[in-house]
């Protein structure tokens, strides 16, 4: 265990004990060997690499004896995010004591999962939206800014919250500022560019921003560091304000999966949607109307990310019940 932690996790503890790590990696080697080969060939190390492998292996192990799993596994091995999301939801449902079956694409109704809870059959459609194109571009911009800041000075941590209208032609103004202002832990506003603070690099490097974010909304963060001889020598944290208002279109696009006379739930994996628990909560809630979207009994938002000490994949859920649904979800379903 100590050798594994030192060599593969770079000395950082994982949130899984050794039997769970062994079970997850063994299942992944058997069910999705391409994933392990890809990581091995890339030479990846660290908890950010190993924890997702263990997590996904444990998910597949929990699902392997469920009806319809083979078809889902085939899609997982084709790197379909929606298929892995279906398996993840099914695994969590099983852990909660819910019986699960994967439905064939030509089944009626055509939802992804059939959940059995206390005699109630619940149809669940799982969707995993990709990051919005505009936000992908903003993320690319943030990385480019961080790379440029890393090249400016050693022993400095540049912390920047870009203005909403920032474009790459504003970068020279930002770089001119950091070149002429030594690190003093002073927050400076650059009109049209953003908020900047430069501070002396501390070890271990801390990625968290110290810039106040009141009334900014959702921010996508990029944190990078330059490493020399195994130690950080410069760091940059760059925040980019983002918006994503696809929730209503997504809900409308999934309605055809549901019958009008059955309890239905839409499960949305929002791991690629920054700020979804805040912004999409309101957007989905506004979709629940007395004469619209009544087939959906609830929307369940699901988010997974690396976190915690020791580090592991953490899951967060939020259920939004539709008060105008044609078939209202029973209380025991909501509680589960």
List keywords for this structure.
336 residues; 11 helices; five-stranded mixed sheet; globular; alpha/beta
Radius of gyration: 23 Å
**Biggest sheet architecture:** 6 strands, mixed
Number of strands: 11
Strand content: 15-25%
Read across the widest sheet, the strand sequence of neighbours is 1-2-3-9-10-11
The topology string of helices and strands comes to HHHHHHEEEHEHEEEEHEHEEH
Note the gap between the termini: 35 Å
How does this structure look, described?
This protein has 336 residues and is an alpha/beta fold. The protein has 11 helices and 11 strands. The protein has helices at residues 2-7, 18-31, 33-42, 47-63, 69-76, 81-95, 133-150, 171-180, 247-254, 276-287, 331-335; strands at 99-102, 113-117, 120-127, 156-162, 188-190, 194-200, 219-228, 231-241, 264-269, 298-307, 312-321. Strands 1-2-3-9-10-11 form a 6-stranded mixed sheet, sandwiched between helices. Helix 4 crosses helix 6. The protein starts with a helix and ends with a helix. The model has no long low-confidence stretch (mean pLDDT 87).
